[in-house]
Amino acid sequence: MTDHLSRIPRSDAVDNRERILEAARVLFATEGLNVPLREVARRAEVGPATLYRHFPTKEILATEAFAEQMRTCHAVVDEGLADPDPWRGFCSVIEKICELHSRDRGFTAAFVSAFPKAVDFIADRDYALKAIAELAGRAKDTGKLRPDFVLDDLILMLMANNGIQAASAAAQVAASRRFAALVIQAFRAGPAQAPLPPVARLALVMPGVTR
Amino acid sequence: MTDHLSRIPRSDAVDNRERILEAARVLFATEGLNVPLREVARRAEVGPATLYRHFPTKEILATEAFAEQMRTCHAVVDEGLADPDPWRGFCSVIEKICELHSRDRGFTAAFVSAFPKAVDFIADRDYALKAIAELAGRAKDTGKLRPDFVLDDLILMLMANNGIQAASAAAQVAASRRFAALVIQAFRAGPAQAPLPPVARLALVMPGVTR
DNA sequence: ACGTTAACGGACGCCCCCGTCCGTTTTGGC
DNA sequence: GCCAAAACGGACGGGGGCGTCCGTTAACGT
After folding, report:
1. CB A154 within 8 A of CB B173
2. Does A169 touch chain B (CB under 8 A)?
3. What is the largest CA-CA distance in chain A?
4. Can you tell me the distance from the alpha carbon of B114 to that of A157, in angstroms, rounded to the nearest whole number?
5. pLDDT band (50, 70, 90) for residue A5
6. Whether B21 CB is under 7 Å from strand D
7. H-helix segments, A32-150
């Protein structure tokens, strides 16, 4: 029996792989997750078969393409956790996450979607969410974050932020910035605020990715 | 020259027309504006040609199908305007509009979209928006609505509300309700609130309707 | 340099949606 | 009841995305 260990990949293969990922990053960010995979292949100057060989499903491609964004996400929440003022850290996380997501239309879709297979992607996401929950807990203790805040409210805001459509990339970021400021206002604890309606079960669905 | 006045339509024609509209209402509400027109035709038990004969474009079909929702919209804002307490009226408008839009996925898309041809639809929408602006002005005067509120913030909120995805129709409404409560919190005037980032030019684009 | 073999990509068949044509059916006036 | 006109709907051709096959190309070891 021959050696079945992972062989070193050929140079053109890794080259194509990287070009595909780069193309996917750009297109997912600007057009969203619904871009035809062939368009990604075209931009990468690669045949369709090559793309499918490297990334059998759009899900796999997306998770790999968004790995960097996910790292940024982690950095943002870590930064927030490191802030001595939890509320300020919480606010900065919301602002930065909103901006991050507004710059990358596809990433939000991926972030709030239920990838059945992408185990590590989901793990990463859940780790970030856990960290935010921890930060939120501390912020509540300072009395600046409203006590009835729930982690699902953050998901709600991310989904909502994703619904915003602006005329240009710059306008998109600007709109998200204003939205984030409003959201922070909504989350701030205030005197005599009415109780919030109950939390609803949000649906993490992936748009246009059947396979 | 023969009489070119509008002739009375045939009975089966008006019947089909109504069934198509009903089917469109249901499908647009549950699936959004992207449902294939053939599916509408199927549900209406009508051939594709019949649908196209009555409603040459999806835009026309949508505007006619949403006429009722638009009337509800008007009723809601009128009700809000009638409230002696402008802020309370403003809040009720937000709550009801959010619920209305959460129940009808397609209507929001139509509402925040740029139909180039649907003159009266746009006129209706703008009338409702004007009325809300009027209401907002009064609410500002009472000091309960933050002075830097802009009408675009409402559009922003509608778009955002449209981004929310829940597990079921009921959950969708529940999520929107909570969202609306948070939004109201964000709009409420408070002591020493930070100035909002500038307004961005929002894009009213119709998803998946090229013709 | 050369042969092996991994990797490539053009091309194919499939399915779904679109908008229209035209032969057939139904309606309503006489 | 009859007939012209209005309305219907099955069927067609076009276009686009999808996933795969297979003949060709080019990288790497010797």
Report:
1. no
2. no
3. 75
4. 25
5. low
6. no
7. 37-43, 48-54, 58-65, 67-82, 86-103, 105-111, 119-141
B33 within 8 A of B115, measured Cβ to Cβ: no
Cβ atoms of A139 and A104 closer than 8 Å = no
Out of B161, B181, B197, name the one closest to residue A181 (CB). B197
In this complex, the nucleotide whose C1' atom is nearest to the CA atom of residue B7 is: D6
Contact A99, A169 (CB under 8 A): no
Q: Does A172 touch chain B (CB under 8 A)?
A: yes
Q: What is the number of other CB atoms lying within 10 angstroms of the CB of residue B134?
A: 14
**Which residues share a beta bridge with B59?**
none
DSSP 8-state symbol, B170: H
Which nucleotide across the nucleic acid strands is nearest to A41, CA versus C1'?
A: C9
Is residue A9 classed exposed, middle or buried when 0-12, 13-18 and 19+ CB atoms within 10 A define those classes?
Answer: exposed
Answer whether B55's CB lies under 8 Å from B22's CB: no
Dihedral over Cα of A19, A20, A26, A27: its sign: positive
Q: Is A191 on the interface with B (CB under 8 A)?
A: no
State pLDDT tens for residues B45-64. 999 999 999 999 999 999 99
Could you read off the pLDDT of B118-157 as tens digits, one per residue? 888 989 999 999 999 999 999 999 999 999 999 999 999 9
- Asked whether strand D has any atom less than 7 Å from the CB of B47, the reply is yes
Contact B40, B92 (CB under 8 A): no
Q: Which two tokens stand for residue A194?
A: 């009415």
CB within 8 A of B39, min separation 6: which ones?
B27
Distance between CA B43 and CA B24 in Å, rounded? Answer: 9
The percent of residues above 70 in pLDDT, for chain A, comes to 94
pTM of the model: 0.91
B164 interfaces chain A, CB cutoff of 8 Å? yes
Phi-psi region of B192 (alpha: psi -120 to 50; beta: other; left: phi over 0): left
pLDDT band of B103, cuts 50, 70, 90:
very high
Provide CB contacts within 8 A for B123, sequence distance 6+.
none
8 A C-beta contact, residue B201 and residue A166? yes
- Phi and psi based region of residue B143 (left: phi greater than 0; alpha: psi -120 to 50; beta: remaining): left
C-alpha to C-alpha distance for A24 and A18, rounded to whole angstroms:
10
